[in-house]
Recover the amino acids of this structure.
């Protein structure tokens, strides 16, 4: 199957490619700084209204449809994305500067993600059907029949992320989980890769047509500024927001949503510094191997991962010196990366400037910039004492750099780690005889992170049932959720209970006969049998 | 066992009964308007700091303790509450005006709730342990071992509700579920029943002492105004808020929490009008029985239930006239109730005034007020057309009244129901041959409510696994949760993942041997076996 799509620069609203009046924008090739064709229209309020109207109507039609249709939609979407074939990779490469190999593996992950949710939806138990049957004889009051399950909520606004144009893009994790739960999606395209987004929208349209679901289930709107994003978040018909990006943008969206007459949840993943702790025994046993692994994790994808380890803590001493030398050498010999876009490049330059001007900073390797957005990595070091005094050294530097925190003792390291705010991840490298110390650090870190990694590196987020890609604020605005893994579907649902409902009026997941053959809790026991 | 507690008027902070400087307040007997002894101190910022300091320290000590201790704490708390014996009932009766029989049954529910959570915690599967084991041979990248579970979050602020001084009181559902999840609790006492609260605090202290858990796990602070509540919500160490009460207060707390430098979730249950729909067939078959049931549901507990059916929709006609006459008669012959406190009485008087002054309102029965806060119930009626034009007729009237909406047709009734905002409950009365019509209304209502009831009444919230006591805003600020039933525990947790952790560093729930013998998802399959 092949899906040829010629870019139009238009929005997709309910199956129509829509040109709007007014200004527009072109993507820019970050490798050259040259603007790319075509010109992309910026949406206005009319397009916002139209998209929500169609999404609301689509939701009305599909809310109670059997899950099979949604599973087929997700699978068809994965197929359509593959059918976009090389032109998708080529366009994404042009717009993001990311290399082909990376985009191919990201495409695989994106399709796997869609298929994982298809499987989850088809299997069906994710709705958490719980049934308490009646007891009319109970005294003093008869016990009613109560049954609950998770239901979709309605139109979800998804902000496409710049650093994963596929996996967190227009048909990435947020869209996949929102559709899987049964919700229509309105995507705010990313101005840095609008062409990639348009191609994904074409894939979504093709998948909707193939599966016969309402085409209002997916819309895509372009805008270079914040206006349309804000209008989407504030629209009365919006029920939730998915976002991956900067703390500043994420918090602004969260604030808008909280200030609505009817507040809605915002699932914003806003990155973090992902502290990595090297215990003395680990340093002694394999400090240089850790240096190699850390260098790779810091520079992978130009350091533009939400899970990039931005801070590494170690205890001063001879093994630490060898680690530092090795890491410096690795960083110094890593080539330049083209950063995603001018805005990321500017932000990274500022972050490096902030670090370099902090008192007591040692510049272990000063990366430099060339071309439009090409950077070689940088490595900094500071004493634990100075790090604790300078809050600006806790901020994320989104790009290929890391900051080593040299501690005088384990005690000082512990004192540092105890001051960390919410993080997506935390990593502990421990030696063979450091179980007790590692346990103490695990206790401190697990209260602050979404995922705790041992003897590894945080980059690379496995898409699996158990994954948590989340964490306390400021890593996210919704610490009780994850944006990767099976649990991500729950963000876009709410529980609904039926009391004393006639069997025929119950959703199939709650009917006595268990027609979907799902695992349910019946009177406190899990079973897949009928009642 | 007996627990004698003489009221002190003091706060409880980490086991100490604390008197604070400055102003104070007395409870008032709503049956007489007479202030009650003793004088209760109002907390200041020093008490807030102290309570959080102790809560944070208690959390540090208990966060990773085995669940058995928490189960025993909840059971001991239920025992201590019973041990408070008649003086608790007598004080609550004096402070709330609620009759003894109601308080006895509410006490039973409160203790059952604590025991249900104890059972849930001891059984242990509620943590949703999910394990994906490693596959080092996978290409292109080895698959890591990832394991997740729900973990407690830290100090939870609980606002005690006025209308259920036991079940949603200082040791009610929010406190029970927060403690069950492993969190310390700081309760803001309700100024209408501070003595009842103090007795519950004494029970909590006794339970903490008996089970040897840190006494900082539970504190109780008094305040007559909003200052201490606001300070608790804004405190940097607070992690979540549980609240049951009015829309105005709930929204104010939500706004404060959203505006924090680090926002925290607010689980506010703010009531609703709980629409009840009577389909024509049901009206024909048993309109008078429905009138009897509805009258009881409206006036039960003085109509001071979050789930009181405040609006009832029916189609005009002869059976409807008979229903209306019967309902009016039932309402007219229901005796007076003492409302909970002066503030509830004032609010109810205002709400009735608002309804009575709306154009086209028929006053079917005008209840009246006597004494300090004694009201007989009222019944109003309005046409569907006028109801749709007057948004003030959608607001909750917290007290013993209901508003009938007379529709000219089923179509008009459907049009009304489609305009309803979020509700805790919706109820449908259907006749034997109305499956199709009921299904259409169920579809509309289930998108707007937390719980949908058939041929019954919404008052009386069963504490069971399947219960949902929640719903879209403005019923709650957190539609994805429930404040009653087993699922309520999830509000005060967040998922944490461990990647490639040595078995000994994993929480017991995630260890290979499954020492807690809980049900876990291992590589996509649910099992209670070891790995």
């Amino acid at each position: 199957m092949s899906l040829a799509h010629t870019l139009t620069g238009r929005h997709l609203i309910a199956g129509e490619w829509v040109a709007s009046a007014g200004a527009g924008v072109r993507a820019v090739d970050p490798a050259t700084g040259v603007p790319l064709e075509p010109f992309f229209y910026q949406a206005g309020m009319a397009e916002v209204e139209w998209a929500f109207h169609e999404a609301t109507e689509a939701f009305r039609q599909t809310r109670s449809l059997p899950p099979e249709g949604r599973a087929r939609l997700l699978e068809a979407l994965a197929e359509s994305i593959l059918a976009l074939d090389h032109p998708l990779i080529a366009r994404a490469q042009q717009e993001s500067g990311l290399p082909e190999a990376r985009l191919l593996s990201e495409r695989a992950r994106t399709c796997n993600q869609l298929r994982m949710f298809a499987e989850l939806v088809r299997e069906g138990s994710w709705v958490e059907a719980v049934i308490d049957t009646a007891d009319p004889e109970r005294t003093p009051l008869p016990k009613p029949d109560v049954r609950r399950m998770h239901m979709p909520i309605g139109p979800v606004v998804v902000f496409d992320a710049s650093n994963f144009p596929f996996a967190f893009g227009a048909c990435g994790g947020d869209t996949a989980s929102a559709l899987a739960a049964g919700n229509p999606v309105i995507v705010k395209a990313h101005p840095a890769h609008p062409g990639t987004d348009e191609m994904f929208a074409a894939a979504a349209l093709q998948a909707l047509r193939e599966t016969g679901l309402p085409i209002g289930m997916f819309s895509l709107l372009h805008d270079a500024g914040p206006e349309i994003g804000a209008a989407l978040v504030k629209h009365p018909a919006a029920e939730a927001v998915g976002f991956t990006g900067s703390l500043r943008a994420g918090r602004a969206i969260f604030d808008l949503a909280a200030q609505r007459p009817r507040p809605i949840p915002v699932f914003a993943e806003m990155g973090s510094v992902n502290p990595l702790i090297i215990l003395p025994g680990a340093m002694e046993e394999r400090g240089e191997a850790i240096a190699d692994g850390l260098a790779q994790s810091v520079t992978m994808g130009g350091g533009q991962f939400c899970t990039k380890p931005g801070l590494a803590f170690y205890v001063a001493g001879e093994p630490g010196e060898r680690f530092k030398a090795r890491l410096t050498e690795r960083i110094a010999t890593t080539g330049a990366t083209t950063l995603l876009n001018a805005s990321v490049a500017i932000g990274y330059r500022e972050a490096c400037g902030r670090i370099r001007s902090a008192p007591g900073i040692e510049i272990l390797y000063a990366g430099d910039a060339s071309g439009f957005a090409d950077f070689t990595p940088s490595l900094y070091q500071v004493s634990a004492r100075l790090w604790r005094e300078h809050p600006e050294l806790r901020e994320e530097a989104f790009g290929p750099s890391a900051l080593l925190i040299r501690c005088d003792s384990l005690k000082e390291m512990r004192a540092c780690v105890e001051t960390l705010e919410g993080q997506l991840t935390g990593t502990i490298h421990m030696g063979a005889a450091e179980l007790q110390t590692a346990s103490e650090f695990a206790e401190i870190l697990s209260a602050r992170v979404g995922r705790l990694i041992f003897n590894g590196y945080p980059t690379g987020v496995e898409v699996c049932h158990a994954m948590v890609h989340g964490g306390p604020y400021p890593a996210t605005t919704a610490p009780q959720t994850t944006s990767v893994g099976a649990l991500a579907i729950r963000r876009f649902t709410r529980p609904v209970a039926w009391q004393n409902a006639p069997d025929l009026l119950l959703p199939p997941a709650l009917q006595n006969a268990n027609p979907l053959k799902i695992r349910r809790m019946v009177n406190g026991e899990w079973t897949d049998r009928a009642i």
User: Anything to note?
Assistant: The domain at 276-454 of chain A is CATH 3.40.309.10 (Aldehyde Dehydrogenase; Chain A, domain 2). Residues 196 and 433 of chain A are 50 Å apart (CA to CA).
